C-alpha cells in the first residue's frame, strides 16, 4: 500500500484555519502579505522622516530667521490696515462694533491684552477720517498699500523657498501691480475666513446655550466641534497663502498637507508663544514700547512657523516626484556654492 505524504505546511495551515473559521471558505494567512504590509509601513515612515529632515534643512538654508524678522517688521505697518479691512467686511454682516469686538477678543487671546490694545489704538488712528472724494481716495489708497505690504514681503520669502524669482526683463510695473493684487486677494481671504469664523462662533454659542439646558453632554461635543472647525479655517488660510502668493503653479492638493502641518504647528505654537510672553518681563523691560515689542515677537515666531510650513510643502511636493513649474512672470533659480578658487579666477 503506497504511503501518503504529508501536505505542505501552508496547506496544513489552510486546513486548520478553515476548520475553525466557521465560514464556508478557509481563512488564509500569508506571511508574504504580512511582510509586504511591514515594508509599506517602513517605506511610509522613511518617506515622512526624509520630508521632515529635508524641510528643516531647506528652512535653515533659506535664512528663515532673517525673513521672519523682515515679515515682523513689515507687519507693524500692515497689521492695522488688514484689521480695518477685516472689520469692514465682517461689519457688513454683524455690524462694525460686534466685528471689532470679536477680532480684538481673538487678538487678546493670542497676543495678550497689551498687544491687542496697541493694535486697537493703531486701528482707530489709521481709519480715514476726512470726508470728500480726494481725501477718501487717498485714505483708501494708503490703506491698500499698507495692507498688502506684508504680503508682498511674504511672497518674496516664499519665492526664495520655492527657488523662483521674477523673470529678467519682465515689466516691473505690471509685476508690481500683479503682486499687490495677489496680496489683496489674501487680505480679502483673511476677512472672509474671519467672517465665517465669527458666523460659526455665533451659531455654536447659541447651540451651546440650548444644549446645556437639554443635553449637558452635547455641550462637550459642540465645544470639540468648534475647535475642529477653527482648525479647518486656519488650514484654509494657510492653504490660500501657499497657493496664491508663490510664483509657482500649484493646485489645492499640492498645498493641503503643508497647510495642515502648519496649522497644527501654529495651533500648538501660539500657546507656547503666549506662555513665553506671559512669563517674561518683555513688556516692562521696554517700557512704553513694550506692546510693540510683544507684537514683533509674536509675529516673528509665527513667521518662522509659516516659513517652515512653506518649506515642508515644497519638500513634500518634490518628494512626490512633482516638478516645480513657475508662472509666466517667474523663472526657476538654482542656488549653487562657488568655490573660492573659481571666484579668484573670475
TrEMBL record:
<dbReference type="GO" id="GO:0005886">
    <property type="term" value="C:plasma membrane"/>
</dbReference>
<dbReference type="Pfam" id="PF03631">
    <property type="entry name" value="Virul_fac_BrkB"/>
</dbReference>
<feature type="transmembrane region" description="Helical">
    <location>
        <begin position="214"/>
        <end position="242"/>
    </location>
</feature>
<feature type="transmembrane region" description="Helical">
    <location>
        <begin position="184"/>
        <end position="208"/>
    </location>
</feature>
<keyword id="KW-0812">Transmembrane</keyword>
<feature type="transmembrane region" description="Helical">
    <location>
        <begin position="133"/>
        <end position="154"/>
    </location>
</feature>
<feature type="transmembrane region" description="Helical">
    <location>
        <begin position="71"/>
        <end position="94"/>
    </location>
</feature>
<feature type="transmembrane region" description="Helical">
    <location>
        <begin position="254"/>
        <end position="277"/>
    </location>
</feature>
<dbReference type="InterPro" id="IPR017039">
    <property type="entry name" value="Virul_fac_BrkB"/>
</dbReference>
<feature type="transmembrane region" description="Helical">
    <location>
        <begin position="289"/>
        <end position="310"/>
    </location>
</feature>
<protein>
    <submittedName>
        <fullName>YihY/virulence factor BrkB family protein</fullName>
    </submittedName>
</protein>
<keyword id="KW-0472">Membrane</keyword>
<keyword id="KW-1133">Transmembrane helix</keyword>
<keyword id="KW-1003">Cell membrane</keyword>
Amino acid at each position: 500500500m503506497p504511503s501518503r505524504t504529508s501536505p505542505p505546511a501552508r496547506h496544513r495551515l489552510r486546513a486548520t484555519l478553515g476548520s475553525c473559521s466557521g465560514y464556508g471558505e478557509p481563512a488564509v494567512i500569508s506571511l508574504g502579505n504580512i511582510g509586504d504590509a511591514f515594508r509599506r509601513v517602513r517605506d511610509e515612515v522613511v518617506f515622512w522622516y526624509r520630508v521632515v529632515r529635508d524641510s528643516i534643512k531647506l528652512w535653515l538654508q533659506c535664512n528663515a530667521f532673517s525673513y521672519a524678522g523682515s515679515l515682523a517688521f513689515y507687519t507693524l505697518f500692515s497689521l492695522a490696515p488688514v484689521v480695518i479691512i477685516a472689520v469692514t467686511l465682517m461689519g457688513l454682516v454683524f455690524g462694525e462694533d460686534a466685528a471689532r469686538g470679536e477680532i480684538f477678543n481673538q487678538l487678546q487671546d493670542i497676543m495678550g491684552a497689551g498687544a491687542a490694545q496697541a493694535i486697537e489704538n493703531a486701528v482707530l488712528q489709521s481709519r480715514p477720517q476726512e470726508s470728500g472724494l480726494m481725501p477718501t481716495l487717498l485714505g483708501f489708497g494708503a490703506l491698500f498699500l499698507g495692507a498688502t505690504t506684508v504680503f508682498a514681503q511674504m511672497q518674496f520669502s516664499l519665492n526664495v523657498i520655492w527657488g523662483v524669482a521674477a523673470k529678467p526683463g519682465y515689466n516691473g510695473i505690471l509685476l508690481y501691480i500683479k503682486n499687490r493684487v495677489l496680496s489683496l486677494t489674501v487680505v480679502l481671504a483673511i476677512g472672509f475666513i474671519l467672517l465665517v469664523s465669527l458666523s460659526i462662533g455665533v451659531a455654536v454659542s447659541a447651540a451651546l446655550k440650548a444644549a446645556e439646558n437639554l443635553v449637558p453632554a452635547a455641550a462637550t461635543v459642540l465645544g470639540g466641534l468648534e475647535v475642529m472647525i477653527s482648525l479647518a479655517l486656519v488650514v484654509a488660510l494657510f492653504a490660500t497663502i501657499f497657493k496664491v502668493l508663490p510664483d509657482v503653479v500649484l493646485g489645492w492638493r499640492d498645498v493641503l498637507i503643508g497647510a495642515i502641518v502648519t496649522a497644527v504647528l501654529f495651533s500648538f505654537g501660539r500657546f507656547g508663544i503666549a506662555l513665553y510672553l506671559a512669563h517674561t518681563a518683555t513688556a516692562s523691560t521696554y517700557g512704553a514700547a513694550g506692546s510693540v515689542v510683544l507684537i514683533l515677537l509674536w509675529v516673528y515666531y509665527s513667521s518662522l512657523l509659516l516659513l517652515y510650513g512653506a518649506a515642508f510643502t515644497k519638500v513634500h511636493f518634490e518628494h512626490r516626484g512633482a516638478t516645480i513649474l513657475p508662472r509666466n512672470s517667474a523663472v526657476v533659480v538654482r542656488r549653487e556654492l562657488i568655490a573660492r578658487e573659481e571666484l579668484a579666477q573670475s
